[in-house]
Amino acid sequence: MGRSIPLVEKEFVSGFRQQKEWAGLIASAFFFGKVGSGLFIMSVFLPSKLGMLVGLMIVLCGKGGAHMLYLGRPMRFWRGMARPGSAWVSRGIWAMTFMMISGFALFAVPQDSALYLPLAIFAVISAFVVAVYDGFLLTSSPAIPIWNTALMPVMCMFYSFLGGTTMVMFMAHFSIIQLSAEFTTLLPNLEIGLLVANLLIVLLFLVGSINTGSAGRASFDLLVKGPYAVPFFSLAIGVGLVFTLLMSVFGGAHAGVGTVALITVADLVGHFFIFFLLLKIGVFKPVLGFLKI
Amino acid sequence: MRYGMVIDLKRCVGCQACTVACKSENGNGPGIMYTKVLDQVSGEYPNVRKQFVPVLCNHCKDAPCVRVCPTGATYKREDGLVLVDHNKCMGCRACYVACPYNNRIFLKRGKTKEGYYGKKLTPYEAVKYPEHQDGIVEKCKFCVDRIDAGLTETSCTQTCPADARIFGDIDDPESKVSRLIRSRGGRQPLCEDDTDPSVYYLD
């Protein structure tokens, strides 16, 4: 397929075409889903009931709310559970439902009960699926080559863990939850490790997307050279990963609540923008790619 | 039995008669087109070539839209038609981003109340618009109502003045579409996506 085929806006012209349907609200749903499920998973391990509750509420109200606002027919949302055998949207709705049921059930079951551990395991697995299914959803769409990479679910997983860790650190520094001495030492190092991992995954994604065909290349160009380059390099990479990493390494969690608040805001801004921009740069191939140019 | 279409790019004159016929058949409002003809300009001056490329839902054998639809609203019939059940669609647009041919249309709120001549609908629009719903995804139906009524042509093929669109059973080796695909080397669009479209292009 010729690289000279243009990226088009006009309705009656053939060429690469940007997808316009999945943008702000879907990016918000992805963002809240990952941060909420990451926080929930971390809180189950701590353990912190308040952290679990906040995580569940972020997923329920943030992710659920964004999806409901986005749907063309929100009152039919329950119909979305009909096809878990083939549709990742269905699997996501089921995972959210299981996460909510098992997550809230954990509050009713005493921690020393025999039921608590299996329930907690089930809730963590459901939350994990909520965190990563977006990646599989994007990967399963053959129309947009830049999304067809196995790195998408991996990226979702690491961003979810990063969001969860950041939120736990934030809540601990503002005395909303209590951490054991062991976790107080572990979390800042985990945060740095996850930031480095995310930076590497984003770099790998960029390198890989160069070779995703001409439509993938058109997406790549939009991201690194086109109109989305400034928010990508400044907000998604600069603020979200590099600034956060530098603050975590040189300031660290011990530098005070102000630094932790800044790290949290920067991390969340970067988290939102990376997925928002990945949605925005989705490009369809021209229908007749085989025509010689 | 598998209904399909052959589009002869050499014959298409880009008149958009198929676009208008389709809109008329389905009673689609402003901006809603199940099919349309795209302009594709190729080459560099002075060797420039302009081609018209009619596009529509390809009614793929392995349709990604059917696979990703979480409600089962998008389904495939035994005769190869990929259809949308308007009463099941929840408007998540997973099919929109999964369709490699970008041939799905999301009807935003108010779209089915917006007439061509202002807010007051014409008698024709008043009859046709209730067949559509806001907040769902629609697409070409290969004129399923005509097929079910025993007709053998879709609205666009019947209207095409250049006979550039031919409709028929691509599973029947003796049908006109099958013979054209064999003799002219019909090509499926974006065949690398393994969707096995039922629309073939002749160039």
Report on this model:
- The complex is a heterodimer of chains A (293) and B (203).
- Chain A has 293 residues and is an all-alpha fold.
- Chain A has one domain (10-284): Formate dehydrogenase/DMSO reductase fold, CATH 1.20.1630.
- Helices cover 68% and strands 2% of the residues of chain A.
- Chain A is built from nine helices and three strands, in the order ββαααααααααβ.
- Chain A has helices spanning 24-45, 49-70, 88-108, 116-139, 151-173, 181-209, 213-224, 229-251, 257-280, and strands at 7-8, 16-18, 283-284.
- In chain A, strands 1-2-3 form a three-stranded mixed sheet, with helices on one face.
- In chain A, helix 4 packs across helix 5 (151-173) and helix 5 (151-173) runs antiparallel to helix 6.
- Chain A is globular.
- The relative contact order of chain A is 0.15.
- The mean pLDDT of chain A is 91.
- Chain B has 203 residues and is of the alpha+beta class.
- Chain B has a single domain (3-202), classed as Alpha-Beta Plaits (2-Layer Sandwich), CATH 3.30.70.20.
- Chain B contains seven helices and nine strands; from the N terminus they run βαββαββαβαβααβαβ.
- Chain B has a three-stranded mixed sheet.
- In chain B, strand 4 and strand 5 (82-84) form a beta hairpin.
- The longest helix of chain B has 10 residues, at 17-26.
- Chain B is globular.
- The mean pLDDT of chain B is 93.
Measured as a percent range, the helix fraction of chain A is 55-70%
Average pLDDT score of chain A: 91
How many domains of chain B? The number is 1
Query: In whole angstroms, how far apart are the ends of chain B?
Result: 25 Å
Q: How many discrete domains of chain A?
A: 1
Largest sheet of chain A: 3 strands, mixed
Give me the side-by-side strand order of the main sheet of chain B: 8-1-9
Mean pLDDT of chain B: 93
| Unreliable sequence segments of chain B | none
Q: Look at the helices and sheets of chain A and give the structural class.
A: mainly alpha
Beta-strand residue fraction of chain B = 15-25%
Order of helices and strands of chain A: EEHHHHHHHHHE
Radius of gyration of chain A: 20 Å
Poorly predicted sequence stretches spanning 5 or more consecutive residues of chain A = none
Q: Largest chain-chain contact?
A: A-B, 46 and 52 residues
Strand tally of chain B: 9
Summed up, the helix count of chain A is: 9
Q: Which CATH architecture of chain B is right?
A: 2-Layer Sandwich
Enumerate the strands of the largest sheet of chain A in spatial order, edge to edge or round the barrel.
1-2-3
